[in-house]
Amino acid sequence: MRTSTLLFPTSKETPGDAELISHQLMLRAGMIRKLGSGLYTWLPLGLRVLKKVEAIVREEMDRAGAQEILMPAIQPAELWQETGRWEKMGPTMLTMQDRHGRDFCFGPTHEEVVADIARQTLHSYKQLPTTLYQIQTKFRDEIRPRFGVMRAREFLMKDAYSFHITNEDLEKTYQVLFDTYSQIFTRLQLNFRAVLAATGDIGGSLSHEFHVLADSGEDQIVYSDGSDYAANVELANAGEGDPSPDGKGTLHITRGIEVGHIFQLGTTYSQALNANVLGPDGKQHPLIMGCYGIGVSRIVAAAIEQNHDNNGIIWPTPIAPYDVALVPIGLQKSTRVQAACEALYHKLQEAGFDVLFDDRSERPGVLFADMDLLGIPHRLVIGDRGLDQGMIEYKGRRDSEAQMVKQDQLLDFIRNSICGG
After folding, report:
1. Could you read off the pLDDT of 253-298 as tens digits, one per residue?
2. Which of helix, strand or coil describes residue 319?
3. Which among 159, 162, 399, 413 could bridge 290 via Cys, Cβ 3.0 to 4.6 Å?
4. Residues 6 or more apart from 18 whose CB is under 8 A from it?
5. How many helices (H) and strands (E) does the chain have?
6. Helix 21-28 with 296-306: angle, nearest 10 deg
7. Beta carbons of 57 and 188 less than 8 angstroms apart
8. Measured in Å, how far apart are the chain's first and last C-alpha atoms?
9. Considering only CA atoms, which of 396, 383, 388 is closest in space to residue 325?
């Protein structure tokens, strides 16, 4: 992509209503624009990041054996009334009526809908276990939407639901999805912790939250420095410096941003909706359910909270909008720089790299500042002086100093840098 044709309205000024650094930088980098309270349009750069997060989530869910579906965003009130949640959700749920006066809601979650699918399509224990998931827009009418896409009213979520005939079977799938979530956040190159958590409004007997560790996180979590033990502070009867309950290491308190939550739901929804299957004993049994959510759009903001400096965003390589920023010096004045940039631009693309070619008529300082703000992991600078020496300047987004690389070695150098980053 050439910046001369890319919509990315960058800004030097920090918006006055943006409290979190992720909100500030997403607006300054031209990733999002506010439409209304808690409502944001994703512009091209932001959408590229969102799609890369979505792709990793989808790949790992598919690898875990889950099947992707797409359920309606608009849900009839009858389903929610069957489970008793129509009144329980209260003003958090956006409700509406059609022309016939029938009540609907814009789905804040999909337990009722997926249980309805199960009671229509799952009839025998031989069809189990089954795990279904979707990646879809949700709406929750937050009392105070804030922090940009971190706590928006409309957001993109991956929600999955598993169905079982026994609790033992649920526990096996729960562990598979726990491991899948760990793999997702590892691939996203985020520093995270899985913590024991309360089940909240969703219900169920056991749940874990997945937190991206960041000073700006709204949740406090306690974790061991000698094991995987971690829990939400309100659930842990312990504090900073105490021995870990599992006998391994010492406890510390940090802050986290919740980006995932998994639940063992049991039969809460299947019993209410009469979603039963024929068991091996020849009798009808309510489906035992699990529920697994990931805030896809929230991950984008959480990644920025964990990866930034005074100059802008520092994207983890797997979700950066582009792999490489190609920045020419004197592009409009030097035909040699023009030819070298065009050749390298196409060569990098043919090698499979996402390249942002900054072909604007701006001073080098402006070009460098914008590329730092956007957080592109790898920057290449081409100028006449370097070409005289057969060299191209390279600087990683996290590097303090640039280095010169021979032109004939550049492709291998970039490949090694990206694979290593």
Report:
1. 999 999 999 999 999 999 999 999 999 999 999 999 999 999 999 9
2. helix
3. 162
4. 24, 27, 148
5. 12, 23
6. 100
7. no
8. 22
9. 396
